Amino acid sequence: MVLLAFLVLLSAGVFLESSEAQEDLNTLPENYIKGVQLAEEQINSHQTIKNIFLYFKSLEKSDIDGGFGVRYLFHRFYLKATRCPKGTADPNPTECTFRNDRPLIDCGICYKTYSGEIQSEPKPYIHCIHKPQLTQVSCERCQQTLNR
Question: Which residues form the signal peptide (predicted)?
């Protein structure tokens, strides 16, 4: 009986955790959501990835107005492994629950937008590695790219 109660509490915790992350993504401004999607596409396209990674939470953001509809964005966030296999159509945290047995992926991305669309020049800089290996050097390189 104690085991059953523990499993019910554990299941509720997983549901709350996964729904909290999705709410965070939906509260981000559209320009940041596009950057997260770009990073998710890159990570989930790797041959070694077996399960889909989804946005988990933001760590830091910056947005520089370049004028005339141009914005330079930096976003650092975590991606977390889910239980959905690679190739799942329209994955989301309510259907693809997060796994707690895999490390988070720490991502830093900087890119330029014009009228809300990510520009190909300069090429968006995406750097994602298993936590806690994202270094200060990686963050500084991204900031230097924004300041050019």
Answer: 1-21
Give the span between the Cα atoms of 59 and 73, in whole angstroms: 14
Which tokens hold the place of 26? Answer: 């939906």
Residue 106 neighbours by CB distance under 10 Å: 20
Q: Is 93 exposed, middle or buried (0-12, 13-18, 19+ CB in 10 A)?
A: buried
Per residue of the chain (148 residues), give pLDDT as tens: 444 444 344 444 444 444 455 557 888 999 999 999 999 999 999 999 999 999 999 999 999 999 999 999 999 999 999 999 998 888 887 889 999 888 899 999 999 999 999 999 999 999 999 876 556 666 777 777 777 7
* Structural tokens at position 86: 């690679």
Distance (Å, whole) CA 53 – CA 85: 10
The CATH number of 2-146 is 3.10.450.10
Rounded to whole angstroms, the Cα distance separating 126 from 102 reads: 21
Q: In sequence order, which residues have a C-beta less than 8 Å from that of residue 50 and are 6 or more positions away? A: 85, 86
